[in-house]
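Hi V.,

You were right to ask for the full record rather than a summary. Here it is.
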Amino acid sequence: MAGFRNHLKREERKEKRKDILMKRIRPDRCRGASDSRLPSPIPARVYRTLDEEVKRRYHPIPPRYEHLPAFCLFLYAVAAVCLILLIIQSGSVAFSDWFNLHISAPLRAFLAALTAPLPFSLGEFTVLLLPLVLVVTLRHAIRRRCDSWRTAGVFIGVLISVLLSFFSVFVLNFSAGYRNSTLDVKLELEQKQVSAEDLADTARILVRHLNEEAGKLGFERDGFSVMPYSLAEMNDRLSDAYAAFCSSHDFIRNNAGQPKPVLVSEILSYMHITGVYSFFTGEANINVNFPDYTTPYTAAHEMAHQRGIAREDEANMVAFLVCIGSDDSYIRYSAYLNMYEYVANALYSADANRYRTIHAELNSATRSELSAYNRFYEKYRDSAASKVSDAVNNTYLHTQQGSHGTRSYGMVVDLTVAWYKAYPEK
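Predicted structure:
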């Protein structure tokens, strides 16, 4: 008798669980509940308990939607390994040096070679299409997949695994570059406290080179210099310059990656972004809305990231060294002028009178170009988008480079001063 009562209790509990699940389904809000359209999805275990007539109004959610796919479990495992690697990178400069050259470099080369044939930036299209993909995915999940807490949890787990795959690629591809030996060590430079006199000496060297190169170039009436070839030709010349630089420096590995123009360059201008390296596709992307003289140097900067130089000041310095080593006058001019802007700004803050004296020695065409750039940049200077972009970039750089944040771009001045102290004739 007691066994029969226990059996009845079990049956009552089953019926209550089924009623609870059926209430969660809410057929009045489901497609197919009151018309002849597609039946509504419900968990397979509930579907099996329904009467045949009621089953016509529903279809069972595939069992695979109630469990994390094996591939997602694999992505979680890879992310766990990458987290361990990131911790080791953070604690060992020597390990980061080895990892950046022997693990990350081949991966960067593979991604660059994989996306190089595409006539557009896959990274840019991924970012632009991401909102649409999210909306479509969520709509599909809500209507066809997530009809219980279990399936909803599985779907969220799938999304997290996809996000973690970006983390894994970042660690494998790029993060060691933030934690390896600094560029001054690799170039055997002695960095000391920079004085106003040091800045003035460096600025004079840059002015001398600018005056030499400017005489070989053409300038428009609006004051800007003109790059005398296409972006494709510029990329080929920069690739040659990088091949020469990488062959003479063992801390950097060359690859076939070349910069790609960004379709939404005008939007990036309002965000104060001249270029960006897409670590998950291996692409160097450049803003082609800015004046010509900024383009070769910006492209070289993003190519430095593409070759494993992660820190912003170091990417600026490598871009400078690569460009001044080029056989092309315009590429050298671009490097000297962009670096002069960094050094001149620092000199103006340190000693405005010395700055004015040295700036007056600059040829009139280049001074006109700098004035033209100020006029061009005025409409982008205080945009709301730039404030958001700067905040995001500053936060990212703080997480990777410590306390310097976006100030790290200007730290290239210290490297340049140290370089010209060591090699004043270059």
